[in-house]
Amino acid sequence: MSAVAQRVETEADAQQELTDGFHLVIDALKLNGIETIYGVPGIPITDLGRMAQAEGIRVVSFRHEQNAGNAAAIAGFLTKKPGVCLTVSAPGFLNGLTALANATTNCFPMILISGSSEREIVDLQQGDYEEMDQLAIAKPLCKAAFRVLHAADIGIGVARAIRAAVSGRPGGVYLDLPAKLFSQVMDAAAGEKSLVKVIDPAPAQIPGPAAVDRAINLLKGAKRPLIILGKGAAYAQADEEIRAFVEKSGIPFLPMSMAKGLLPDTHPQSAGAARSTALKDSDVVILLGARLNWLLSHGKGKTWGEPGSKQFIQVDIEPKEMDSNVEIAAPLVGDIGSVVSALLDRIDGSWQAPPADWIESIRSKKEANIAKMAPKLLKNSSPMDFHGALGSLKKVIAERPDAILVNEGANTLDLARGIIDMYQPRKRLDVGTWGVMGIGMGFAIAAAVETGKPVLAVEGDSAFGFSGMEVETICRYDLPVTIVIFNNNGIYRGTDTDPTGRDPGTTVFVKDSRYDKMMEAFGGVGVNVTTPDELYRAVSAAMDSGKPTLINAVIDPAAGSESGNIGSLNPQSVVVRKK
Ligand SMILES: CC(C)(COP(=O)(O)OP(=O)(O)OC[C@H]1O[C@@H](n2cnc3c(N)ncnc32)[C@H](O)[C@@H]1OP(=O)(O)O)[C@@H](O)C(=O)NCCC(=O)NCCSC=O
């Protein structure tokens, strides 16, 4: 019981049991099955964290709110329950907001709960401690934003936040809790009654029969059909239905990055290693929880072959997603599980497998690409190049298919995505829709906390920098996280120079840094490796030990290309200035 609640209890009728805002927030979260809070303590939520811990909620305290927010977001993706991030007011809130916006963009259910300063002072702009109109700032960056002013409304506020985060298209929700709310006191029985258990927070959305017919007819008429699996399909946890749909239909599938493993990358129907062919030559494409955004070249242009050569079936829970970039011939609005089950029912005796020449053209392209890649993965050179190092990590994951792979960087991301095969759903967590750097340690921590599985975070040296201080958090909570830093001394590569000779080049870091020493500073294991063989041995040992480990993998500073394989997004100057 908080000091305030205690004092009021002794002063008032000793028979009357009281509760306060702190307890009501905790009770509301617990009632709705929230088992973990990710956050950073401070005014005015320090006691909330302490009390939540005392009440049995797992509270994971971070060093920076952005990382706590990313952890909450990916916890939401992994569990289909909203991940909760708790922050202090103004600056802490703003630090968490990047993660909230990223969660919304990626459709991860998350609730950012921030303490805030007094309404009366904020609204008159009288300069309160950490004064900021947080609700107004959060609104455009999330699905919904709520503020609770009275203890009796905490139950409703938490319920609304949960339902908004997980129903329909999931996303980020902001819940503003002013400092004064926490010490508001009310009768305990009335408080308990005011709590709301959210029933059926994400109701199934069944597709209309006509929409299913339209999609099935299109698929039946296709000569070169393709299934694209997005992270929405991974989120849905309809793994068996999706697998059955792919296998019974016989249609080749192409997984987006975080959908890898829904079916194993080694599955005979995978078109992952024949991506260009699959996109360019297909005639009917069914998008399962994948959006036609930049990652799919907006469904048009040379990636997609001849203009007009494509017809799209799109499965999405959000009707407004349809026709966002190109015409969708067969929109299928509903949740992935319900839609796939409906499609599956229609794959009956009259279904014919796709034409053999289509299957063969994907297979031969795939085999050619894999054969071309194979020798590069076996190179045991020192310093390492990306392919040699990733060849080692590919083996590590093949031997531990239930491990979770977190991945960010430029070349480190783009090459790992293709090279490291995934075998199980929701085991690959990466930069997602925005291609955002900084998710690494937050994702790794939540993956370990939520699943208890070994986590391998494969990080570019630049990407790691955004969340690197959380290695202390990993050591403090003794989490089974192995971090590999691909250290090539800079962003993209480590060879740039300042043409004026005054400063370091804008994309380089301190040469030959030893990131492994950071881990040792906090009692974890640090290892420095220079060959793929050493890397394989060090990562295998770390993952088997379950001890927090950071492996500094020395990569040739000249290895790597600008922006990995999305260099075309980087504008280039067309003017050469005369000196
Ligand atoms: C936009 C993309 C979806 C598409 O990239 P593409 O290069 O077209 O495809 P990728 O999937 O990367 O595959 C590249 C090629 O490798 C082939 N490929 C894929 N897997 C394999 C395996 N296992 N073996 C052999 N070859 C393979 C694939 O068929 C392609 O060849 P072909 O079929 O022959 O073409 C991707 O680049 C992406 O997800 N980018 C996000 C990057 C990001 O977020 N960066 C953060 C910012 S970095 C900050 O600077």
Automatic annotation (TrEMBL):
Q: Which cofactor does it need?
A: thiamine diphosphate
Q: Does the keyword Lyase feature in the UniProt annotation? A: yes
The signal peptide annotation in the UniProt record is: none
Q: Sorted alphabetically, which SUPFAM superfamilies does this protein's record hold?
A: DHS-like NAD/FAD-binding domain, Thiamin diphosphate-binding fold (THDP-binding)
Q: Which GO terms describe its biological process?
A: fatty acid alpha-oxidation; oxalate catabolic process
Q: Where is the Thiamine pyrophosphate enzyme central domain?
A: 212-343
Please give the catalytic activity noted in the UniProt record.
oxalyl-CoA + H(+) = formyl-CoA + CO2
Q: What class of enzyme is it?
A: lyase
InterPro entries from the UniProt entry? DHS-like_NAD/FAD-binding_dom, HACL1-like, Oxalyl-CoA_decarboxylase, THDP-binding, Thiamin_PyroP_enz_cen_dom, Thiamin_PyroP_enz_TPP-bd_dom, TPP_enzyme_TPP-bd
Q: What is its EC number?
A: 4.1.1.8
MF terms in GO: ADP binding; identical protein binding; magnesium ion binding; oxalyl-CoA decarboxylase activity; thiamine pyrophosphate binding
UniProt keyword annotations, A-Z: Decarboxylase, Lyase, Magnesium, Metal-binding, Nucleotide-binding, Thiamine pyrophosphate
Start and end of every Thiamine pyrophosphate enzyme TPP-binding domain?
Answer: 411-552
Q: Which residues are in the Thiamine pyrophosphate enzyme N-terminal TPP-binding domain?
A: 21-137
One Pfam family of this chain? TPP_enzyme_C
Q: What's the family? A: Belongs to the TPP enzyme family.
* Quaternary data: Homotetramer; dimer of dimers.
User: PANTHER family given for it?
Assistant: 2-HYDROXYACYL-COA LYASE, 2-HYDROXYACYL-COA LYASE 1
Instruction: Name the NCBIfam families for this protein.
Output: oxalate_oxc, PRK09259.1
Full protein name: Oxalyl-CoA decarboxylase
Q: What is the lineage of its organism?
A: Bacteria, Pseudomonadati, Pseudomonadota, Alphaproteobacteria, Hyphomicrobiales
